[in-house]
Sequence to fold (292 residues):
Amino acid sequence: MKAQGERRAVVTGATSGIGEAIARSLAAAGWTVVIAGRSSARLSEARDRISAAIPDADLLLERADLSLLTEVRELAGRLASEPLPDVVISNAAVIAPPDDITPEGFHRSLAVNHLAPYVLLRSLAGAIGARPARFVVVGASPAALARVPVDLADLNAKNARTLGPLPFARAFAAYGRTKNMNAMFGYALARRLADTRITVNGAHPGIIRGTGLGRGAGSAMKIIGDTLNLFMAGPDAGADTPAWLATSPDMAGITGRFFVKRKQVITAAHTTDVARCDQLWDESARLTGLPG
Fold:
């Protein structure tokens, strides 16, 4: 059981960039923070950096490769035991070319960016039950993503040509689709949890340098990304809205919304359409083996 007054948060993708900055912000506010990442070495390094900045940080490490649903389920099982989290921030994301397929047969961006939070948050919602909790799903720019609606007939991006005429840019188009999936999943999950004390909200952290998102996107896009990094804000700016959604008293009971710079925004119609969101939910359930 949790000690009286202990607040526990889980942050995925917390070994660098925005996720690490979120974890550091929560640790500074006195939270026990479970930082999740796929590399034991990188987890230890992130813990050391956070502890150097916040000497009394209470940090726990969870290693899981979120591109593998087997490991996501195992992570969910570990997190579903006492003490249960009060906050879960789904931040992990990757940009991968369409031919980057996981051993389980999924496009890597689909697996990490959408299917992993789908399995993790659904599993934890069941474990948390009637207790209060906040789920935050870190998405991307609603304005930019308005132009890349999810292809509900091809979540796995098997038809690469539909991602655009320029092969080097297809990884970013596939990434954009998964970020729209984040918003759609958040709305669908919030509706399904409306009678509980669990809230679900989405957030765009901003265009942030040092996220490592494009490591696998190809050399051309890496060069573009490195150039843009010179003009971007740092990870602390990206952490602000997700951490605020997770902790602010003003957000108590607020659910099913999407925020940019702490302001609610309306995302594209193709992400808010209930029928489309439900279709994504059902297809994701089929792919992951969860009930619809």
Notes: Confidence is low (pLDDT under 50) at residues 227-231. The first strand starts at residue 8 and ends at 12. The longest helix spans residues 170-192. The chain has one domain: 8-288.
